[in-house]
Each structure stands twice: as C-alpha cells, then as structure tokens.
Amino acid sequence: MDKRDTRVRVRFAPSPTGHLHVGGLRSALFNWLFARHHGGSFLLRIEDTDKERSLPEYTNSITEALSWCSLISDEPIVIQSERAAEHVMVAQLMLKNGRAYKCYCTQEELQQRLGANAAEGLGYVKYDQACRNTEDRAGVPYVIRFKLPDTIQEVVFNDLVHGDIVFNLDTLDDFIIVRSDGTPMYNFVVVVDDASMNITHVIRGEDHISNTPKQILLYQACGFTVPQFAHVPMILGPQGNRLSKRDAATAALDYRRQGFLPEALCNYLVRLGWSHGDQEIFSMAEAISLFSLKEVGKKGAIFDMKKLEWLNGMYMRSYTAQDLLHKIQHNFNQNFVDRFHLWTQEQLCAAIDLYKERVKTLRELQDSLYILHDGPIIENLVDASRSLAQQVQVQQNMQMFEKKLMDISDFTKPALERVVQEMCHDQGCKISDIGQPVRVALTGVTSSPSFYDLMCILGKEETLNRLRMLQKA
Ligand code: GLU
Fold first, then answer.
1. Is the pLDDT reported for residue 286 higher than 80?
2. Residues of the chain by 3-state class (helix, strand, coil), percent to 5
3. Measured between alpha carbons, how far is 429 from 447 in angstroms, rounded to an integer?
4. Other C-beta atoms within 10 Å of 327: how many?
5. Which of 102, 126, 214, 245 is catalytic?
6. What whole-number percentage of the chain has pLDDT above 90?
C-alpha cells in the first residue's frame, strides 16, 4: 500500500524503563515516515504499566529525544497507566464472555504439578488449564488467564517486512493477562490500547514477533480489528550481536551530547535497515516520499560509527556558519557564543566556516574553535610541536617572519601569501617551514586549516602575540 491513505494510524510505544535506545528511535522514525508518507497519524504511547521498572525521568528523556529528532505525536501522548479502568473493563468482559478465566493456582501448586519453570511463567512448561472450569472462590487471590481457542491449530499473519509468519498453537498456553495484584500484562494492554487508539499498523522491533500470535488471538477474542504488523530487524554491533553499550552509545541523547545533528542521526538510522538504491543522503521530505516497508531489509544491520560520523560531517558542511552557530547554541551548548568574548561575530563565523570542513561533529567544531580563540597553552605543547618550536632554524625564521608581519599594513590573505613567498625565496626554505611553526604558535598543533586563514581570523596583533609566545617556549 503505497498510496496516500489518511486512515493510517501508527504509534510508537516505548516503556520508560530506560533512555530511548537508538533502535527504538529508528522504530519511531519508521512509524513517523510511514504515517507521513500516507498522510496518516503518528501517535506516542508511554507504556508505564510496569510500575517497578518505569521511572518518570525516562519518560522525560524519551520525549526529549523524540522532540530533538522532531518526531512529535500528532495527538496528545497516551499514558498507559491512565487507561487502567479500560483495561479492567475489557478483562471483565472477557471473563464474562468466557474468553478468559480466573486461575487460583498458587505458585507452590504450579511448581508441584508442572515444575519450577511454569511457576515463574517462563513458558517452557505450559499451564495445564486446571482452572478452566473452576467455580468462583470468594476472597481467594487469582490471576486472569486467556482461554486459548480449541478450534484453531495455528495463527498466521502477513508481516509487512518478513512475509507470512506461522505460529503453531502448540507453542502457546493459557497465558496470564492480569496478575494477581490486578495489574494487566503487556500483551493484553498493548492490544486494548492499540484497538482503542484505532492503530492500523504496528511497526516495531523484531523482538516482538513472538508476542504477535498472542496479541492476534486477543484481538480476535475481544472482537477488535487486527492491525497489520511490520517487525523491523534489530540494530547489531560489529560482532553481529544486538547493539550494546560496549559497541557504541545506545541512548539517542548521547548522540546529542557527542555533537551529532538530529537530521544526520535520523538519516543514518533510516538508511540502516531501509534502502532506496544506493542513495545515502536523504532530506526528510525525500525520505517521506520514498519510504516504504517493502524496502526494509529482513536482516539486522550493523551499526557503523564511521559512517554516521561521515554523514554528520556531510550535513555540517552543507550548512552556513550562521546555521551551525544556531544549531550549536540551541541544541548543543547554550553558552557557546559567550565563550568567544574576544571575537566579533564575524570572526566566529569565519572560524566556523574554516573548521566545518574538517570536523565530524559539533563537539569537534566547538573544541577546535575554543583552542583557536583561547590560543595554545605553550607549556602544554605536545612533543612534536615542542621539538619543532625549539629548533634554532625555526626560531630564526619566526623572528624574521614576525618582523615582516609588523610591516604589513593590509593584513589580508594575498598580502600574507606574498610575504611568505618572498621569505621562502630569500631564505631558500619551503612554505611548510614557516607554515608549521605558525600553526603551532596559533593553535598548539601541527595540523590545522590554512595558516593564512587562521592569521586573518585572529588579526595582526593576536597573531604577533602568539608568534612571540612560541619563541619563549
Ligand atoms: N513497550 C514495548 C517496548 O518498549 C513496545 C510495545 C509495542 O511496540 O508493541 O518494547
């Protein structure tokens, strides 16, 4: 279904038991792109029914990460725990209709009859349906179990990424939908909520495939329309395992802290697992118009930090200095501009233009600019720079260069180039014999953008100060 269909309603349903994982962010993005592609709605539901593991700070960090990436819910955010009354109502209805039943078996009884695994609910040993026809026992605690239909052998669904998936009912049992403390289980609430929110397509991580047959059975038992499912493969680490903190930062907001642009991260994540020919760089508008679940790969994709850095660098270079300044100030470091008290806005923008060509992240850009603005701490020069600064020939060249600079009246790139060329000619030295020590004097390191450009940004007085400082090194 590639055409516009405004009835499309999708949701991203994170559990606030941790920060938003990049895999979750990618699921959110796929949902959002799918909704935008069809002109439908993208919704957000916070699945906080697991009170012990859910924390409000995670809800905040998840919504912050999503807004950082401009993935905003089209309707008010649904908080699952606020929908408890409806969950209870549906469970009661299922009891009344005979689609579910109260089970009074205690942990000890289950353990005795079925072994340890059954009591833990691990599912290896199936529940023996002992309470299926038990009378109500007033005052005795119970769980509510779903009554697995006896009339069908399998559940089949057409996954929009994986194709037909078949589950034999033999692998399932009368699973619990409401715990003995009255709290509902994930598979049950997700169905009640998706039905109530009129979700048409459930797009989520592949780790939920095994939950899908249970959910389909619940939809059918409740008489709800079954949505379509699309299970997106996992993001993998370099060893082919599921991406973990040992491989790369997994929390989406860590990428903000590291100085990545949300548009570059989103472009990278969309492309990781979805492709359109060989194209790597997509504007959001392009991704919206091209996105289709048919082109989502069936296999997990390996997270490649180098590629993300490359892409981020590409995005950074596509922006003007003013754009980058705004992005740093509003999304990375709001004290950034204040730090450049010795410079005019023009100097700052010229420096951004110079360094944006060489850096991969906003953080690298910021750090390079701080050094250029503050000047190197000569005592901290690294060995290579220090030994260069201490060579006699270099010191003589620098003294001569300093004198020549003092005589220049127009401190411009062509004038500086002329001075250096003349000096090379007179002294029989190479441009780099002057350029390298100048770089060290201005920035403390031997690798930097054109030293002419650096001198122009810093101006005559500051350049001379720094050259003199180096001679004292
Ligand atoms: N809350 C579930 C999770 O965070 C997602 C449920 C779903 O998408 O169906 O894994």
1. yes
2. 50, 10, 35
3. 19
4. 19
5. 245
6. 83
Ligand 1 centroid distance, CA of 14 (Å): 5
Q: Which atom of ligand 1 is nearest to the CA of 190?
A: 9
Atom of ligand 1 nearest to the CA of 194: 9
- Condensed to tens digits (0 to 9), the pLDDT of residues 222-279 reads 999 999 999 999 999 988 898 988 888 899 999 999 999 999 999 999 999 899 999 9
Contacts 24+ apart (CB under 8 A), 236-244: 236/300, 236/301, 236/302, 236/303, 237/302, 237/303, 238/302, 238/303, 240/300, 240/302, 242/300, 243/22, 243/23, 243/303
Quick: pLDDT tens for 391-436.
888 888 899 999 999 999 999 999 999 999 999 999 999 999 999 9
**Which amino acid, one-letter code, is at 375?**
G
Q: How close is the Cα of 227 to the center of ligand 1, in Å?
A: 15
- What integer is the mean pLDDT of 282-310? 95
Rounded to whole angstroms, the Cα distance separating 414 from 371 reads 25
Q: Is 403 in the active site?
A: no
* Spatial contact of 226 and 219, defined as CB atoms under 8 Å apart: yes
Question: Strand 143-146 relative to strand 100-103: parallel, antiparallel, unpaired?
Answer: antiparallel
Please tell me the predicted confidence (pLDDT) of residue 307.
96
Residue 75 · residue 41 · CB < 8 Å? yes
381 with 440: CB under 8 angstroms? yes
**Burial of 453 by CB count in 10 Å (0-12 exposed, 13-18 middle, 19+ buried)?**
middle
208 CB less than 6 Å from ligand 1?
yes
For residue 296, list its beta bridge partners: 274
Please answer whether residues 207 and 176 qualify as being in contact, where contact means their C-beta atoms are separated by less than 8 angstroms.
no
* Residue 201 near residue 95 (C-beta atoms within 8 A): no
Q: Which atom of ligand 1 is nearest to the CA of 14?
A: 4
- Give how far Cα 323 sits from Cα of 96, 315, 318, Å: 61, 11, 10
- Could you tell me the pTM of the whole model? 0.92
> 110 alpha carbon to ligand 1 midpoint, in Å?
29
Longest dimension (CA), the chain: 107
Look at strands 201-205 and 228-232 and give their pairing.
parallel
| Residue from 47, 157, 210, 232 to probe ligand 1 pocket by mutation (most atoms less than 8 Å from CB) | 47
Cα of 15 from ligand 1 centre, angstroms = 6
Calculate the CA 1 to chain-centre distance: 28
Going by CA atoms, what residue is nearest to atom 6 of ligand 1? 13
